[in-house]
Write a structure and sequence with these properties.
Keywords: Coiled coil. There is one protein chain. 33% of the residues lie in helices and 17% in strands. It has 583 residues and is an alpha/beta fold. The protein has a domain at 5-71. The longest helix is centred in the first third of the chain and has 53 residues, at 19-71. The N and C termini lie far apart (86 Å).
């Protein structure tokens, strides 16, 4: 239906239509309105039909979905496959906690069949975090186990009942593990009294009833509680123990001269991996029989041991594969050191935080003979007191670098000057990966802590810990790290993006001439904002050379400001601002 031709002319002007024209237009309009009503009625019918069909389609979909649920492949998975899937549902970075929102307890709340399968899967019940009374970590009973609250309110019996209920729950949990080796993490905050220690002892005795199946143990408790709980244990009872991680905290005003009780669990017959954090580490471990160290393959001291004792210890660990230590000055007046070598034929990775005396640590590194060493991480915190270049003294680690021809992964940090760093790199003919400094500190959740320069609005910038430009081909008489493929450096501020591009260009050109290996990856962290995007230039250069270079460059966030700062001399050490130390 269209507008009549005679009416169209009135749309082009503002003329008054004649009476008969008005009648014709009115008649035509009524016809159009009637036609519109018919069309609207048809649309309404179609909409109702569409709604009916849509509802029908939805019902069909629901029926199809129900059929698919019945035919779901997971219904036909055999129990042994579900056992494996359930095991991989457990946390990978820690032991499971006793919460219904987390596996394995979560798996028992899905359906009847899954509950039955979960309860009959011993492996998923072989790992658990056990918070002793007073430890609120991952605990759903935090308030119920607040000792001071329950004592203040006079609810001693309620407190004890809750603890014993938890003890029963843990016993049931571990009973489901069948004969599987156990992985336990046991924690305590250190706040306890006579009532608390009785309950702790009760829970620990329950755990000790499974001692023959302990395989991986992470024990974090105060030293005095440890002494009460484990003083009289028989190490032979822990026949399956393979890995021990123990952190013994002490009170702020503890008697450091008191004789510590040794860590008897170290004498477990099958123990291979050990991590220790405790005061007087040397004394805790030094009075144990030597044969126990023969079995250890992985050893970490996160608390300090003396520079002299480190060498004594290493001589007793001929099967060591991985070692991480923090050294400190020896307190004894006698600074003589037995120079007998420590032969470590299986050692592959060694990490040292060196706070020891330079002379003693030089002897230590010279005595270490590790023909299989491929990875070395070294932090030095005691450079020479006199910064005069004419009295330059080498870093203690140099003898180890010279004696270990297979090192391919090298990390350097601490208070190393550029001269010391160059000296180390000159011994790195086989190094393919080098790391300078370390990434920003993180908390347990993996997030950067508040003092990180990437988070603070006011950032203090110090001189670069290392001048990467010496890695450029032709920057010195000797090409440093000719096999370098992976480069990481942190806390850079003075190196410009243009200078970085020059370094990369020189290494790529060196590869094209056959002088160096091809760069594969650079991961650099700057304490400044980006000056230039070099990504396209690097991509072009790499493509021309027939290689691929991965760039991971992190800069200061927009909106952050920083104050350029040169460190003042440190009165206790005699460092000057020109030392260009690692920080």
């Amino acid at each position: 239906m269209n507008l009549k031709p005679g009416f169209a002319a009135f749309l082009q002007n503002n003329d008054v239509p004649a009476e008969f024209t008005i009648l014709e237009v009115t008649e035509s309009l009524n016809a159009s309105l009637h036609e519109l009503q018919k069309v609207d009625a048809e649309i309404q019918q179609l909409l109702e039909l569409m709604e009916t069909v849509e509802m029908r389609r939805q019902r069909i979909r629901e029926v199809i979905s129900d059929h698919k649920v019945i035919l779901s492949p997971v219904r036909r998975l055999p129990p042994d496959v579900l056992h494996e899937i359930f095991f991989h549902c457990l946390p990978t970075d820690r032991n499971p906690v006793m919460k219904h929102s987390e596996s394995p307890l979560l798996l028992t709340r899905i359906c009847h069949s899954w509950r039955a399968i979960a309860l009959s899967s011993p492996r998923i019940w072989s790992k658990v975090h056990v918070p002793l009374p007073g430890d609120h970590t991952f605990s759903e009973w935090s308030y119920a186990l607040d000792y001071h609250t329950v004592i203040k309110d006079g609810h001693r019996q309620s407190f004890a009942d809750v603890v014993r209920s938890r003890c029963d729950a843990i016993r049931r949990w571990l009973s489901r593990s069948g004969a599987c080796p156990l992985s336990l993490s046991i924690g305590h905050s250190g706040d306890y009294s006579s009532l608390g220690i009785e309950l702790i002892q009760e829970m620990f005795d329950m755990l000790l009833s499974f001692a023959d199946r302990w395989r991986d143990i992470d024990l974090s408790i105060p030293e005095d509680i440890y002494n009460d709980l484990l003083d009289g244990i028989n190490p032979a009872t822990f026949c399956s123990l393979k890995s021990l991680k123990i952190a013994l905290s002490s009170q702020e005003f503890a008697d450091w001269e008191a004789e510590p009780i040794p860590i008897r669990l170290l004498a477990a017959p099958s123990l291979r991996r050990v991590t220790i954090s405790a005061r007087q580490t040397s004394r805790l471990t030094g009075n144990l029989a030597q044969p126990i160290w023969h079995r250890i393959t992985h050893l970490t001291f996160t608390s300090s041991t003396t520079d002299k004792y480190l060498l004594v210890l290493l001589r007793q660990c001929p099967n060591l594969v991985f070692g991480e230590f923090m050294t400190s000055f020896s307190r004894w007046a006698d600074q003589t050191v037995d120079k007998e070598e420590a032969f470590l034929p299986r050692l592959e990775t060694l990490a040292i935080n060196d706070f020891g005396a330079r002379e003693i640590m030089t002897i230590v590194f010279n005595a270490i003979k590790a023909p299989a060493l491929t990875r070395l991480l070294y932090q030095w915190f005691n450079p020479p007191l006199n910064s005069n270049s004419s009295l330059f003294l080498p870093t203690p680690v140099i003898p180890l670098l010279e004696n270990s021809a297979l090192i391919s992964d090298l990390s350097l940090s601490g208070e190393l000057s550029s001269q010391h760093t160059r000296e180390c790199l000159q011994r790195g003919e086989r190094v393919t990966r080098v790391v300078f400094g370390g990434p920003p500190s993180t908390n347990v959740s993996g997030h950067q802590v508040s003092h990180s320069p990437f988070m603070d609005p006011d950032v203090v910038i110090r001189p670069d810990t290392f001048d990467l430009r010496i890695l450029s081909i032709g920057s010195g008489a000797v090409t440093l790290l000719p096999r370098l493929e992976y480069l990481e450096a942190y806390h850079l501020s003075r190196l410009t993006d243009e200078a970085l591009l020059d370094i990369i260009t020189s290494r790529i050109n060196g590869f094209k001439r056959g002088e160096t290996a091809a760069l594969k990856s650079l991961k650099l962290s700057f304490k400044r904002k980006r000056q230039k995007d070099i990504t396209e230039d690097v991509s072009r250069l790499a493509k021309e050379a027939g290689i691929e270079v991965k760039l991971d460059l992190t800069y200061l966030m927009e909106g952050c400001k920083f104050v350029e700062h040169t460190p003042q001399p440190l009165l206790t050490s005699g460092f000057s601002p020109n030392n260009d130390m690692w920080y």
